[in-house]
Each structure stands twice: as C-alpha cells, then as structure tokens.
Amino acid sequence: MHVWPFLLYKAVCAEESPSSWKTNYSWLYFLGSHDSFSYWVDEKSPVGPDQATAIKRLARISLVKKIMKKWSVTQNLTFKEQLEGGIRYFDLRVSSKPGEIGQEIYFIHGLFGIKVWDGLMEINTFLEQHPKEVIFLDFNHFYAMDDSHHFFLINRIRSAFGSKLCCVECVEYVTLQYMWEKKHQVLIFYHYPLYREFPFLWPGNKMPAPWANTTNVHKLLQFLETTLEERSRYGTFHVSQAILTPRVKTIARHLVRGLKNTLVHRNLPMILNWVKAQKPGVMGVNIITSDFVELVDFAATVIALNDLLLEEDDSSSKS
C-alpha cells in the first residue's frame, strides 16, 4: 500500500526552509481517528473503570458485553493499517486494570483494548520503516491511574520512541524541516500535570479538541464551523472531531445495530461533504478525526486539499 506523506507546520521564514516548502501557509490538513485503538476490545475482561457502576453490574450478563462491543468499537483498522491509510493523529484513552498485579496500562473504551506498549511498538515499527513520517499521539483520558501508573506509562513512551520524540517547542517552530533535521517523528500530548516533568510531553492545552456531544449531524457541522471560527490563531494545534455521540436512548433503541450502523454509515456522506468544503490555513481545519476512517476516502480528500493549498501558495509566490 502506498503511504502518503503528510506535512506539519509552515516554516517561520523563507530563509529557514528549503525552497520546496512555501512560507505563506499556516497549517496543513491532517487526518486522525477517534478512539484510534478500539479496533479490538476484550469481551472477556471486566468492564472498564470509565463506565458507570450500573453498567458494570449489567455487564455480568455475557450478552451485555457483546452489545457494549458494538458501541465501543469505533475503528476497524489496526494502528499499522491506519498509518498506511494516512492517519497521523491518534486519539488515546488509557487505564490500568483494577485488581491486576503490576502497573500495565491498556487502551480503553468501555471495554479494555490491547496493551499500550503493544500499540506503541506497532506504531514505532511503521516509523522505523518511514523515517520522514511524523505523528501526533494524544493521551487525553486516564482511568484508574495514580502517579506511579503515569510514570510507568511515560517510561514506556520514552522506551518506545527514544530520540524520535519531539520536545516541547513553540508550535510555529514545528515545521517539516525542523522535524527532519532533528530526526523527530513523534509529538506526545499528555493531559495530566506530570507533563511538566518531561520535556517530550506537550501539554494537553496545545491540542484542544472541542466535542459536539450530539447525535444530530446538522448540529455537529454547525458546531465544527463555530469552533473553527473561535480557534486560537497561533500557539496551538486544533482537532475538529467529526463524530456523532450516541445517547443512552440511542443505544436502547438500536441495541444490536451498534454505532456504525446507527450513526456512522448514514451520516458520513454529509460529514465528508463538509470536509471537502474546508481549507487548511491560519483559521482553517488542522486535524480532523472520525469514526471508521476507512468507510469513506477521507485520506484522498485531505491530500487533495493540501495539494490545492500548496498550488495556491506556489501561484501567489510567483505572482
């Protein structure tokens, strides 16, 4: 499979960048996945600590976990497959397993997923094979974790990526040239106060990801428009979450159909049309996430929009 290269931010000035990288654009478009790790969840393990007590009690019935899986899984592709398809931003929720000996950390979305270490290793293998690719890993939800668990996880991250980790810098300095010169490939965003103790952990507020929390696609698209208008002009990245979130009554009405068949399939065409109408730029879309990223060709759309931006930039520089 062809692996599409994605670019980071503009160079600060022309003298700092190769002639092939233009300076009159602010952001390019990146594609991300929502609950990126949820392609596999363990029906045999206990329900995760991210769930309400009532759900944990109900889950003692085996059928309940099967239904939970239909609503917990938001991706079909593994990390490797997502990377090959152009995904460069990964939305990560993690947890310890209460009652388990040791400090192992797992991905979680209602049910436990694979070990975080296994996921990091899969991602690192891709990066080893593609040394000019750059990714964002956004650790934004933590469950059943005290500081010792966090230190364990942070050391795992450091062990997995080593010198590929990009230390915190002014966002506008992070260009493709900058990453290549320093041989960096990974930006880690860590939404927990311990980020202050590690230079390679970017604070969570550098990766805002406003959440519409709606089942209505029209409200979602309006929310995406509004939050783009309100986004910071400089100093942060920005995630547009193009996702619909089921209510309890949504799940109750469509128990066995699951998330994909209830909300995703029928609304993706409208969401894709919105994506096609966007432009990267200072106040434009930066990173967009969706469920089941393979169902429509988001990657081709994002690549086409980036190409258009570069063509416009090239034209303006010659005029």
TrEMBL record:
Listed under GO biological process in this entry are: lipid metabolic process
InterPro entries recorded for this chain?
A: PI-PLC_domain, PLC-like_Pdiesterase_TIM-brl, PLCXD1/2/3
Q: Single GO molecular-function term?
A: phosphoric diester hydrolase activity
Membrane-spanning residues where? none
Enumerate the CDD domains for this protein. Answer: PI-PLCXD1c
What's the superkingdom here? Eukaryota
Know the name of this protein? Phosphatidylinositol specific phospholipase C X domain containing 2
Q: Which organism is it from?
A: Chrysolophus pictus
Taxonomy, top ranks, is: Eukaryota, Metazoa, Chordata, Craniata, Vertebrata
